[in-house]
Amino acid sequence: MTVPGDKSISHRAVMLAAIAEGQSEIRNWLAAGDTEATLGAMRDLGARIERDDANSLTIHGGGLRESERPLNLMNAGTGIRLLAGIMAGQDFPSVLDGSAQLRRRPMKRITDPLTLMGADIASNDGAPPLRIRPAALRGISYEMPVASAQVKSAILLAGLFADSPTTVIQPGPARDHTERMLRSLGVDVCQGGVDGNRITLAPKERLAPLNMTVPGDVSSAAFLLAAGLLTPDSDLTIRGVNLNPTRTGIIDALGEMGADITISNLDEQAGEPIGDIRARTSQLKGIEIGGETVVRMIDEFPILMVAALRAGGETLVRDAKELRVKETDRIAVMAGELRKLGAEIEERQDGFRILGPQTLTGAKVDGHDDHRIAMSLTVAGLIAAEGALVADAACANDSFPGFAEALISCGARMILS
Ligand code: S3P
How far, in Å, from the CA of 174 to the mean position of ligand 1? Predict the structure, then answer.
């Protein structure tokens, strides 16, 4: 099977193509709730975007203009934070807003460094809406308090419009798609310091157009891999998945848990390593996860929690308090929903502890308008003795349209209503 295009890259592709000069072509673009919100915002900003089909975009870049209305990023944290970096450098004002869920997410992490660069940004007490007015930007050197690719990217994107180079120092290896893509568009981005965690970008307002095929999203693949590992007699292969090392912590963690996962057909696409991932039913064992691995699998903890319930022994996750400020508080929400299915989970401020293997019963659970919660609970339902009724399962569409259908196509017994 295949999975839809990478969400992180799809957000970045549509933003960068809109500010680049000339005509960009993007194939296998992710047409999902979050990325469509970003595409809509770029259209409101004057970008001309043609769609040959849902996943193939031709974008005529070359200058944005003021939007007549607030930009609505819906549930997209990546959308609002990265776009704020771009908007800070424009010579017209903008208002960036989104859903009730997005309005609860912390923005000080980007408004602080952007303000240091000279940006004029007002927020609603550290949350959206963000009101940005034109201002001259200067390059800064900024040590990020959290290992966040969204914060890093917002600063680097603003740095394109600054008067001098911008440096960010990240505490850990946050995904590096922005750096890779900017380099391919002719921007001078260099990496140095300890473990390459110091990134310096030279300003450049005129970017070359983008021509890329977006690789499959490893974060989407993770749900199918887990379903394959945890259900009996499974053997599934997902082709063309992004294997960027800043994203593959989940594959390493599952491997350490004893998962039968093999990688083949290694190749490169859009400046990213890709390959096929094969997963077969496995008896897992518990492990400890902390430090850098956490950053490299930050979106995969909801599904890791489900896998840990079936693993023998103790699984202990620490250094993961960022999970509490994602679309939902993913530690509390996952623990709460899985308890309805009979799970015992010890919540910790910065992670969780699970003693397995545990048997799940059956219950009605809720996706809480958080795509990764909904998909994780769906996989939990597949291994629950009496199944699960997943309410709000459709919010999976924010990153993985066709998720339920994909599971059904490889044999999952599910009814969609
Ligand atoms: C993303 C970065 C991560 C991740 C999110 C996508 C990105 O967020 O959780 O789903 O595309 O840059 P943080 O950078 O806030 O950790």
Answer: 8
The whole-number pLDDT of residue 63 equals 81
Rounded Cα gap, residues 145 and 235, in angstroms: 41
| Domain extents in the chain | 7-213, 218-409
Give the residue numbers marked as catalytic: 299
Is residue 38 a contact partner of residue 255, using CB atoms and an 8 Å limit? no
First to last CA, the chain: 24
Return the amino acid letter for 256: E
Q: 150: Cβ below 6 Å to ligand 1?
A: yes
Residue 166 contacts residue 158 (beta carbons within 8 Å): yes
Q: State the Cα angle at 180 between 400 and 211, rounded to 5°.
A: 70
| Contact present, 390 and 404 (Cβ < 8 Å) | no
Domains 7-213 and 218-409 share a fold: yes
State both tokens at 158: 């603003």
Phi, psi of 363 (to 5 degrees): -170, 170
* 227's tokens: 């379903």
Reduced 3-state DSSP string for 360-415 = CCEEEEECCCCHHHHHHHHHHHHHCCCEEEEECHHHHHHCCCCHHHHHHHCCCCCC
Low-confidence ranges of the chain (pLDDT < 50): none
> Ligand 1 pocket check: which of 75, 144, 150 to mutate, most ligand atoms within 8 Å of Cβ?
150
Fold of the domain spanning 7-213 = UDP-n-acetylglucosamine1-carboxyvinyl-transferase; Chain (3.65.10)
Q: Are the C-beta atoms of residues 71 and 38 closer than 8 Å to each other?
A: no
Q: Which long-range contacts (CB under 8 A, 24 or more apart) does 50-56 make?
A: 55/5, 55/27, 55/28, 55/29, 55/30, 55/31, 56/25, 56/26, 56/27, 56/28, 56/29
> What's the pLDDT at 62?
84
What CATH number labels 218-409? 3.65.10.10
